[in-house]
Amino acid sequence: MSSSSNTTAMNEKNQAFECPEGSTCSWEVQKNKKLVIKQDGIGAYYPSVEEGENMVVKFEYFKAGPPGTADGNYSESLFFEVPANFKEIIKENESLEEVSLLFGRHCFCPDSGFFPVKKGSLSVSKSGDDLDIELNFHVNEVPQVISELKGRAVIKE
Questions:
Q1: Positive or negative, the Cα torsion across 121, 60, 14, 3?
Q2: Which burial class, exposed, middle or buried, applies to 80 when counting CB atoms under 10 A from its CB (0-12, 13-18, 19+)?
Q3: 37-58 exposure pattern, b = at least 16 Cβ within 10 A, e = fewer
Q4: Residue 91 domain-assigned?
Q5: Which of 25, 81, 89, 145 could bond 35 through an S-S bridge, CB–CB 3.0 to 4.6 Å?
Q6: What is the C-alpha to C-alpha distance for residues 13 and 47, in angstroms, rounded to an integer?
Q7: pLDDT of the chain along its 157 residues, tens only?
């Protein structure tokens, strides 16, 4: 996403993230959790946030469909896990697997679902109750709206 004036403000607690115009975005950082990537009976991936000793970061992008459409909404989500106590994490390409980075595309379309992210870079630094996050990523399996995120999220108690 580029820094332009066509952005919507994020939740007041989560500062500095930009969201494409006409959509909503939200961040959640959960303490004492772990992210488990599971597969269903047909091999499709999905996230499970469970009790644990780390933190799980979740991002959601949502764009409502045109008025009068039943199945026109579109959303994307990202999940990843970081240790409870860290100063800085930098991961790139294959090492993104170490934080279980998972991208979800949710729509009334045949290529909806979750996909492990294997291409990109993630930088997370912790300062008090804030996480400064920079993420650039690409998934080959499906189109995506969100491919770059930069800003600050507040750790939830």
A1: positive
A2: buried
A3: beeeeeeeeebeeeebebbbbb
A4: yes
A5: 81
A6: 24
A7: 333 322 233 333 444 467 888 999 988 999 999 999 999 999 999 999 999 999 999 999 999 999 888 889 999 999 999 999 999 999 999 999 999 999 999 999 989 999 999 999 999 999 989 999 999 999 999 999 999 998 888 887 6
Classified as helix, coil or strand, 30 is strand
1 domain residue, yes or no: no
Residues 80 and 49: their CA atoms lie apart, in Å, by 10
Any idea how long the chain is? Answer: 157
pLDDT at 5: 29
CB atoms within 10 A of CB 4: 9
Between CA 28 and CA 157 the distance in angstroms is: 11
CB-CB contact of 59 with 26 (8 Å): yes
pLDDT computed for residue 7 by the predictor: 29
Q: Domain count of the chain? A: 1
Q: Which two tokens stand for residue 43?
A: 């091999």
Question: pTM score, two decimals?
Answer: 0.85
Q: Which domain does 101 fall in, by range?
A: 7-156
